[in-house]
Amino acid sequence: MKLAKINTQTADWQLELPTKNLTFTGAPAEKAQQLLDTLANTAIAGGILTGEEVLLAQPEGIFELSQWLTEKLNLPFVSATEDFKTAAENLKWQVTYHGYRPGKDEYSVESLLTVGNGFMGLRGTMPEMEISDEHYPATYLASLYNTAASVVSDQTIYNEDFVNAPNLQKIYLIVDDEKIAFEKEQIKKLTRTLHLKTGLFHANAIVTTKTGKEIAITVKKIANMQQTEQYSLQYAFMPLNFSGTITLVSEADGDVYNYNVARYRSLTKNHLDIVNLEAKATKALLVAKTKASQITVTQYSELFSQNIDLTQLENTLAEKVVRQKLTISAKENTWYTLDKTVSVAQRRKEEAPLHIDLDQVSLPAFGKSAAESAAAWQILWDKAAIIVTGDLMSQKLLNLHTYHLLSSASPNGNKGLDASITARGLHGEAYRGHIFWDELFILPFYIIHFPKTAREILLYRYRRLPAAKIDAKKAGYKGAMFPWQSGLDGTEQSQELHLNPISGKWKEDHSRLQRHVSLAIAYNIWQYFNNAQDEDFMKQYGLELLLEIAHFWESAAQWDETLQRYTIDHVMGPDEFHESYPNAKKGGLKNNAYTNMMVVWLFEEIERLQELLPTDFLAAVEKTGLTTETLEKMATIKNKLALEINDEGIIAQFAGYFDLKDLDWDYYKEKYGNVYRMDRILNAEGRSADEYQVAKQADSLMIFYNFPQQKVNEILQDLNYNLPKDYVTKNLAYYLARTSHGSTLSRVVHAQLAAMVDDQDLAWQLYQEALYSDYRDIQGGTTAEGIHAGVMAATLYIPLTTFAGLDIRQEVLNLTPNLPKAWTSLAYKLKIRGVHFDIALTHNDITITADETITIQVCDKPVTLNAGSKTIVPYK
């Protein structure tokens, strides 16, 4: 293994290669670029750096030199003080940020450094930080919502928000009456690392006071993955150039509010009332209650230290804050350490309140809490890790995405928890922490790795079935109409007015017309049942959900005498840019292709379940009150729903789509650069996306993400439409040229389509863009408002489906590998139909181990696996 050796000790950097030595001169950025250019053309396996640490300020962030080289060259570069092999492996399991760039960039870093366990999420801030435009500490609890009124454009509107809970992370120092609050002028150095394997946040900092006193601070933080209602911090500080008095303060801060999303800040943002504050010795208690939803959040903490005398703590109660502080005589170059562990509980208004006696409770110190959490994380990684070789950065990002999915929902945190996964995880407040159709992209991760968790998430929907039925009735439909945005009680939480941040104007929001969310729920029920084979779930919940959803679509379909087909009107598709027809006074579109084809699939599935579970099906029909005539009408509709298809075989996104104008993409790309949100650009110019053939993301193409082409062909045949053989290729090219990728999910769907039509280079390009989308915040700041849980889950699914060829949608597990050139091998585990599989593949063969004897298919050929035995199957 040939390694480059780089020495930054002197002003001129020295590079030692296996074949020659070079010297680089100039400013650090110039030398770094010279170094990069040289290494890019050198056959090496990585590099070792000696000398001083070098930080590079780049447009995309502040990087340490070895980190910058690693990311640019996709090769491991490490410090000479580390064992190369161990350090190179660790690079795949940690995310590090250097420096501090206040504002949107800092907000994005905090999202990506969040620690969580499915029950709670703590943004990656330092304990000293307070809510401001520069940085944003927040504690999020799954399903903690509150509705508040705001006045917008002289109208009173009501928004349900994902509430920022009271902050018990807060710890800070006071030196010479100056509070260390981690403002820019105080920070001399800051490095934060998230250790993905263990869920540990670790920060090192040096702060400077106005009088020139320097203090080193280190922070460790975990959200306990074993005891998911606990989190723990370790806070250590050391005076570097002085000895003297330092006041150490720990707070339970109830003076918090929602501030994460800039466009929401003009709305009501205070959601909590403080109910109780207490402090006794090293313990503190804060109880808060949401103003409208009446959810009680109870938090108590305990402090520990081996070298600070905590008997000297001074406890005071302010209006919304419990403050515990003590002043010590600190010695230069001496560390002082404080542990703080916090217990968090929430109780809804119908639940009995939690009574805490501080004399009776006890919590573990940081070391014990971190150790048990790390052990719990390892169990999850053993089941969910995807391992690739030949591509360091892809492996790192796969680990990052797996970590954040398990932080958003986990077998531990979601057990018995009435919650689903928000579009932005437990990481931020975008979309007000609501649950969308993103579940369609997210649930497969849990279905194949943690089916019990998938069941819990589906039960969140079942418990809100009554609300969906009420909403359907109000809108003039039958059955269940699930909301586009769901929160606490399952009522529609989509905004009625939406702010365009480019124009600064509010406009009517029709997004609630995306009724296809119910089809995503139906699809997930089918996926779960097909692979978990949980008949009990289907009998008690699944069939009822499917029938009520199908009843809604049956009632929405209307006969059109002119077309001699059924049509579905007043809906929006996944595209989201098109809310209505040009200049229409009413929102909604007719015959959205994706929606109509998914309805056909659902009605087909209803017929199949009637045959598969006849007794239980009849019981569900009786429970829902459906009639034989209704079921017969569904069977008729599935053969007569309308689509609009041109002579080339292009399936119109909706009726009338081909009549819309084409857009001059080159003009807008040159004028604006970033055209992801083309709808907002057009709106700011006094136009509307409704006038143009422009899409935010895949719409009619989404059907090919959900189903293999053979199944889509069957749906089209059911509808008596005959398309040319190459219709998928034509549809992909047509819509790809008209899509702005305003949603990060768009790239994932198009990547799968590109692989389907054998454009592997395009598939890889789009997949890589999706994989990096949050890490590089390619949408210009949206990661600041939370990670994109849907795209993270989808980028974990594509390696298994599109690249490893896994298809769990058939009656028999099917594998048709298509490994990317950049990857040497791919390995993963999954649980399907009660069987645990261990699968590894190269470009030539696939090795499979199952814990039960079973027959599967590899490249459409049957292969029998013997329990516990490795089977190697060549596929090329």
UniProtKB/TrEMBL annotation:
The keyword Cell membrane does not apply. Belongs to the glycosyl hydrolase 65 family. PANTHER family: GLYCOSYL HYDROLASE-RELATED (PTHR11051), PROTEIN-GLUCOSYLGALACTOSYLHYDROXYLYSINE GLUCOSIDASE (PTHR11051:SF8). One of its GO terms (biological process) is carbohydrate metabolic process. It comes from Enterococcus canintestini. InterPro entries: 6-hairpin_glycosidase_sf (IPR008928), 6hp_glycosidase-like_sf (IPR012341), Gal_mutarotase_sf_dom (IPR011013), GH65_N (IPR037018), Glyco_hydro_65_C (IPR005194), Glyco_hydro_65_M (IPR005195), Glyco_hydro_65_N (IPR005196), Malt_Pase/Glycosyl_Hdrlase (IPR017045). The keyword Hydrolase applies. This is Glycosyl hydrolase. GO terms for molecular function: carbohydrate binding; glycosyltransferase activity; hydrolase activity, hydrolyzing O-glycosyl compounds. Residues 97-346 form the Glycoside hydrolase family 65 N-terminal domain.
